[in-house]
Amino acid sequence: MTSKQIRQKYLNFFKKQGHVIIPSASLIPENDPSSLFTSSGMQPLVPYLTGETHPEGARLTNSQKSFRSGDIEEVGDNRHNTFFEMLGNWSLGDYFKKEQLRWLFEFLIKEIKLDPKRIYATVYSGNKEIGVEQDNESVEIWQELFKEAGIEAMDYDNVEKAGMRDGRIFYYGDERNWWSRSGEPANMPIGEIGGPDSEVFYDLGADLKRHENSKWKNEPCHVNCDCGRFIEIGNSVFIQYIKTKSGFEQLKQKNVDFGGGLERITMVSQKKDNVFETDLFENILEKIKELSGNKNYRDHTRAFEVIADHLKGACFLMGDDKGIAPSNVDQGYIIRRLIRRAVRFGRKLGINNIGWTKEVAEIVISDYEYIYGELKRNKEFILSEMEKEEKKFQKTLEKGEKMIKDEIIDGESAFNLFQTYGYPIEMTIEIAQERNIKLSDDFYKEYNEALKKHQELSRTASAGKFKGGLADSGEETTKLHTAAHLLLESLRRVLGGHVCQRGSNITAERLRFDFNHGEKLSDQEKHKVEDMVNEQINKKLDVTVREMSLEEAKKQGATGVFESKYGEKVKVYTIGKGEDAFSMEICGGPHVKNIGNLGKFKIKKEKSSSAGVRRIKAVLEFC
């Protein structure tokens, strides 16, 4: 069964159970400062899990694009990907454990024909300190389901010490079988939701259990031991708690949040022991083989997998309609890290021709554009940014690698590699480990001190200058700079929340404003933006400023380019107050105190600036 068939079977199956198929949300979260990326299907649904009514009803299903940057170093172990698709279904206060576990089991053994004898389940062992009992209800449901499949399902605790014995259902604690965006209960902030979960594992075979040099060879084997024999293919989370100041309280509704990786489910369905040997990667691996001069995947597993995973992830991040490009901040930094790491592993395979990453990207786009149309829409942007980033890094890669040759490398040297050659610190550490080069005892302290010194020098050098490309701090320039805030917010409201500022240049005569958007603005859209700006000007709103930490600014929903480090104070300018507040933005330049005297805002020209970036030139006309 192909991955395409599995994805569609899943959606059709839950549609038959009364679920509405909803589209995948963006990989770049909306109004969620806690995460750079959408890493699960539940993230966009948090308001509805806490009680808000979803316009499509209480039963939902989809295949959600997901990205987890924390798994970058894990790629190469047969099961981890940075980008993956999460098959999901949700009950928003509707059905609960009995229906969810039965439907899931039915889908696995009847729809995609998995062997029930190779399926295992885990449940929550409880936590008396937070007042949540052991999940015996799920155990009883699983036992009934296994019995119907002709299996006597014994349940066991303490498996991490005693091993599996003849068990089929196992209890685990906070670290394994409790789910929230923040992890186990102790790490959850006030207001975070979560609950116990029940995971499903598949047995890949006892022959994968141990290797002579395995670090697990003398430890008890169990479904969650990471030895390689078992793989998690799905997790049903029973989101029914919220953390409050007084402890954990029941939500007003009991929710189900299921997520199952398409890559892993496809892997076991296709009787593979590696996600990279499924049809989701076969075309990409074939292209890497061709580019490397016919090298064999099994002989160079890690290099093939890193390249395939990282370039696929970079394609999907850049292919998102929000137009994120490689950079040194936030999501852009992760994209840069993915591409540069892929390029370095390409060199290990002997791939040195400039532009090869673009060839892999074309395969990714071709494989997925039938379901994720944004890849086709943004193809030009993906390919051009991929090629530019590869060229930048190829020129400096060899120079940087030659510098990592001493017996010990210190933090200051690592920072210089980043500053001079664009080497992410993670890559320097990785190369050092491969060559058995030690890090100095105070490596991270030295790196941070070098970074701090650089930041201080940069601030001294830029004293007297304003952020955002202002020519001066005169009255007319200040008015146009304030108008740029109104313009950005109006563009976001008219075109969508994906719009971010990409640059600006403001003089006393006009403002020039760059922003990401894939299409030319229609006359109607331009008029809407103009009218919205002028409507605010006519309201004569006050402009106020507050200093706060970057974390607080993000929590309050401020927009801006988040170049500052966590903990650093930033200025947040708000236009309007209370319900009349129109714009809230992190900024460092001068602003008027009231927008009532700005004049009439007029867009003079709108055109392409670069791939995926538009440019507006506008003026303020004084009546």
Descriptive report:
The chain is of the alpha+beta class and 623 residues long. The chain has 4 domains: 3-276, Bira Bifunctional Protein, Domain 2 (BirA Bifunctional Protein, domain 2); 281-397, no CATH class; 404-463, no CATH class; 475-621, Threonyl-trna Synthetase, Chain A, domain 2 (Threonyl-tRNA Synthetase, Chain A, domain 2). Helix content is 38%, strand content 22%. The chain is built from 19 helices and 19 strands. The chain has helices at residues 3-16, 46-49, 97-111, 136-148, 159-162, 174-177, 262-269, 282-291, 301-319, 330-348, 356-368, 373-377, 379-403, 411-421, 425-434, 443-461, 475-495, 523-538, 550-555, and strands spanning 20-21, 59-67, 83-92, 119-124, 154-156, 167-172, 178-180, 193-203, 230-244, 247-261, 408-409, 438-439, 501-506, 511-516, 543-549, 569-575, 583-586, 600-610, 613-621. Strands 1, 2, 3, 4, 5, 6, 7, 8, 9 and 10 form a 10-stranded mixed sheet that branches. A 4-stranded antiparallel sheet has the order 13-14-19-18, covered by helices on one side. A hairpin with a 7-residue loop joins strand 16 and strand 17. The longest helix has 25 residues, at 379-403. The protein is globular, with a radius of gyration of 27 Å.
Write the layout of secondary structure elements.
Blueprint: H1 3-16, E1 20-21, H2 46-49, E2 59-67, E3 83-92, H3 97-111, E4 119-124, H4 136-148, E5 154-156, H5 159-162, E6 167-172, H6 174-177, E7 178-180, E8 193-203, E9 230-244, E10 247-261, H7 262-269, H8 282-291, H9 301-319, H10 330-348, H11 356-368, H12 373-377, H13 379-403, E11 408-409, H14 411-421, H15 425-434, E12 438-439, H16 443-461, H17 475-495, E13 501-506, E14 511-516, H18 523-538, E15 543-549, H19 550-555, E16 569-575, E17 583-586, E18 600-610, E19 613-621
Parallel strand pairs: 1-2, 4-6, 5-6, 11-12
Antiparallel strand pairs: 2-3, 3-10, 4-8, 7-8, 8-9, 9-10, 13-14, 14-19, 15-16, 16-17, 18-19
Helix pairs in contact: 3-4, 8-9, 8-11, 9-10, 9-11, 9-13, 10-13, 11-13, 14-16, 17-18
